[in-house]
Amino acid sequence: MKLYFAANACSLSPHIVLRELNLPFELIRVNNKTKKTAHGHDFLVINPKGYVAALELDDGALLTEGPAIVQYLADLKPEANLAPANGTWERTRLQEWLNFISSEIHAGLSPLFNATIPDAVKTIFKDKLFKRLDQISSDLDQHDYLLGAQFGVADAYLFTVLRWTGLFSIDLGHWPSILTYMKRVGGRASVRAALEAEDVAQVA
Questions:
Q1: Mean pLDDT along residues 94-106
Q2: For an engineered disulfide with 84, which of 41, 90, 164, 169 has Cβ 3.0 to 4.6 Å away?
Q3: d(Cα 158, Cα 44) in Å, to the nearest integer?
Q4: Any idea which fold 89-188 has?
């Protein structure tokens, strides 16, 4: 398998999952500005959507969208318990979390990367985001990970996007359980290895 990634992008999530599962894969860096891979190939030919993450299977099939990729990977090694079994209530709860992270946290942070948006508008986005972080904090007050005691693919995704908060002077110390969670996830060997391979700094 080949994982196409960009540093500090959401592709860190499937990268962590690949390392959690000890699956063999090739990591290929993509320049988000030029849309060229580290091998000089046109990434738009590989993935016409033009963004990471993208997972190329050994048969040449391409899978995009992080929540789909991490579930596919988890199902390759169900014994690792990174995702509940398909068809169960617990799997539906996982999908609930993945959708929440995608639509409320990932999408809530994304506009803040746009330097042309006025500060007043960014404040509106942040206020909404903070309400969502309140909800996450309430859950993490009760258990170590999103689905309970077991680290899973939703945690890899949430950790990935919450790392961006530091870019926008959002202090996760306002949510102690989230800050503790970030340190807990950040201490995992898979996470440290993925960050090192992508040559990005560990979360503060």
A1: 98
A2: 90
A3: 27
A4: Glutathione S-transferase Yfyf (Class Pi); Chain A, domain 2 (1.20.1050)
Neighbour count for residue 137 (Cβ, 10 Å): 17
Residue 55 amino acid letter: L
Confirm or reject CATH 3.40.50.1220 for domain 2-80+191-198, answering yes or no. Answer: no
Q: Where in the chain is the domain with CATH 3.40.30.10?
A: 2-80+191-198
Q: How is residue 97 written in tokens?
A: 């979390």
d(CA 47, CA 88): 32
State the Cα–Cα distance between residues 149 and 46, nearest whole angstrom: 38
Structure pTM?
Answer: 0.95
CA 2 to chain centre: 17
DSSP state of 175: S
Across the strands, what pairs with 148?
145
Q: So what's the pLDDT on residue 148? A: 96
Query: CATH 1.20.1050.10 in the chain, residues?
Result: 89-188
**Separation CA 27–CA 5 (nearest Å):** 7
Residue 203 in this model has a pLDDT that exceeds 50 = no
Distances (CA, A) of 129 to 89, 107, 136, 157: 27, 9, 11, 16
Q: CA–CA separation, 173 vs 190, rounded Å?
A: 24
pLDDT of residue 204: 35
